[in-house]
# Entry
Amino acid sequence: MNDQHLEIELYINAGNDEQNTAVQQLLDALELDQVVHNTLLAAGVRQTVMLTLLITDDEGIQDLNNQYRQQNKPTDVLSFPLLEKPLVTAPAEQLWMTDVEGEEATEADRVAFVTPPELITNLGDIVVSWPAVLRQAAGHAPGYELLYLIAHGVLHLVGYDDQREAGYHKMVALQQSVLEAAGRKA
# Structure
């Protein structure tokens, strides 16, 4: 992404004005664009992209987790990729699956939308729970935890999956590498 650019559409709904202000102040002090950009580079994504980031409360993320994953509980981060297949090149055990279980679609059966190279690729949406950031930041700064979860979400958007051990280890290694390069330590 040397000449390309990154667009992050940011929304904050962390429960009340005080929490929203706290999130915004923390984000203003963090290198959010740099961490997202470097996460994409570490994953091998070089094209111009955009994504949406929502920082919400436990209730908001629980509603989404229940609606889209049928898990009626809060979680720390959710990702909603808009891609039909992973952008990254990696072993299959590190990537999310694109076939619906029980259906074997062939490449000829699929009509994929291809974003023209001159247009921006919308990767999708990342949702982070602000209360989870604060809970999980025990022993390290909330800023580190927030950037760690955002990097995690970005990796999901481009194709990585942590449901299998190989994908989990690859994602953690990439997240830690990106944050260390940005001068952030757990």
Observations:
- The two ends are 27 Å apart (CA to CA).
